[in-house]
Amino acid sequence: MLKKIAVMTSGGDAPGMNATVRAVVRYAVSKGVEVYGIMRGYIGLIENDFVQLKFSDVGGIMERGGTILRTARCEEFKVDRGRKEAYKVLKDRQIDGLVVIGGDGSLTGATLIANESDVKVVGIPASIDNDIHGTDMCIGVDTCLNTVVENIQKLKDTASSHERAFIVETMGRNCGYIALVSGITTGAEAIVIPEVKVDFQALADKLLAGKKRGKINSIVVVAEGAASAYTVARHLENRTGYETRVSILGHIQRGGSPSAFDRLLACRLGSGAAEALLSGQNNVMMGLQSDGIVPVDLNKALQTKKEIDLELYKLANILS
Ligand code: ADP
Ligand code: F6P
Q1: How much distance in Å is there from the Cα of 49 to the middle of ligand 1?
Q2: For the segment 4-56, what is each residue's pLDDT rounded down to a tens digit?
Q3: Which atom of ligand 2 is nearest to the CA of 128?
Q4: Residue 11 Cα: closest atom of ligand 2
Q5: Which ligand is located closest to the Cα atom of residue 132?
Q6: What is the maximum span of the chain, computed from C-alpha positions, in angstroms?
Q7: What residue ranges define each of the domains in the chain, with the CATH number in brackets?
């Protein structure tokens, strides 16, 4: 039975990370396990920046955006020497289990710890990008989508007033999920994602056809990994003569109080991760699959590319 575990948030923050920390801590503490929070992800681990978390220390954080444990990107952890320092810290502190909450980079670090040290590791997918295989949704995605949809809706107001086209750039790194789902749920004219080669002429024709039908606004959602919104705007302006504006939503997509969906997912994945660790599982990630919480082999999850649902892309084209 594990006696002392640690939890960290790492990589890009995501709404719901705090709710996840709360669930990990409260589940483990309720089973008599001592829990430590590691500050600032892998850099805090290397620098031995730990804080003990008791049941009441994680009160009132469910609804808070960001992460109370802070987060960071840490180059040192990618090299052997940095990781050896980290393993020494874990050993000296007699930590026998670790929960890593983060995106695919953070989970890559987590699997290395499981493979290279005696510490048991369970990962929890938290990233607005929704690019992790083995889970239908990552923590933070739903809140991010609600933010994007709300903002596109506002842009539509001003686009209609001025009869303009808006090119809206969303985050997602190399994954088009945020653009695809926000595009379909706001009725955008077009969606540009890295998974589908862009045809600027077809896009321009679609906008012109919309105008012919009497549309007074046009929204094109562009995933950052596909193209720069400015490039798309230039192509479209040249081909349609439309007055266009660009809006890059940026980091507002990562902030805010988590939605009910993300809070529930955080409660389930967080407690599931603590339970998995305490029952002796190692090198797994807790995932949401068909509404069940399941352990997924971490190496396999990281080695498999999460495919985007291209049926949704086709549907968006039909419906807009
Ligand atoms: P995210 O977890 O949101 O995908 P990153 O890709 O920036 O964010 O990864 C977060 C951190 O995870 C990195 O700064 C690094 O400390 C660690 N990490 C990422 N990739 C690796 C790797 N290949 N080996 C070891 N650690 C890694
Ligand atoms: O992985 C989350 C994410 O927000 C990506 O969508 C984006 O490409 C990246 O992080 C931005 O990173 P940073 O916070 O370092 O600007």
Answers
A1: 18
A2: 999 999 999 999 999 999 999 999 999 999 999 999 999 999 999 999 999 99
A3: 2
A4: 1
A5: 1
A6: 70
A7: 4-140+258-303 (3.40.50.450), 143-254 (3.40.50.460)
Q: Tell me: the pLDDT tens digits for 98-145?
A: 999 999 999 999 999 999 999 999 999 999 999 999 999 999 999 999
Pocket of ligand 1 from Cβ distances under 6 Å:
10-12, 42, 73-74, 77-78, 102-106, 108-109, 112, 127
Sheet of strand 244-248, all strands in order from the earlier edge strand to the far edge: 190-192, 218-223, 165-170, 244-248
If one counts every other C-beta atom within 10 angstroms of the C-beta of residue 271, the result is 20
Torsions phi, psi of 58, nearest 5? -110, 20
**Residues β-bridged to residue 22:** none
Handedness of CA 24, 98, 39, 138 (dihedral sign): negative
Instruction: Decide whether any atom of ligand 2 lies within 6 Å of the 128 Cβ.
Output: yes
| Residues facing residue 97 across a β-bridge | 5, 120
User: Cα of 74 to ligand 1 centre, how many Å?
Assistant: 7
* H-only helix segments in 134-241: 141-162, 177-186, 200-212, 229-240
Active site residues: 129
Using the atom order of ligand 1, give the atom closest to the CA of residue 103: 2
Q: Is 178 exposed, middle or buried (0-12, 13-18, 19+ CB in 10 A)?
A: buried
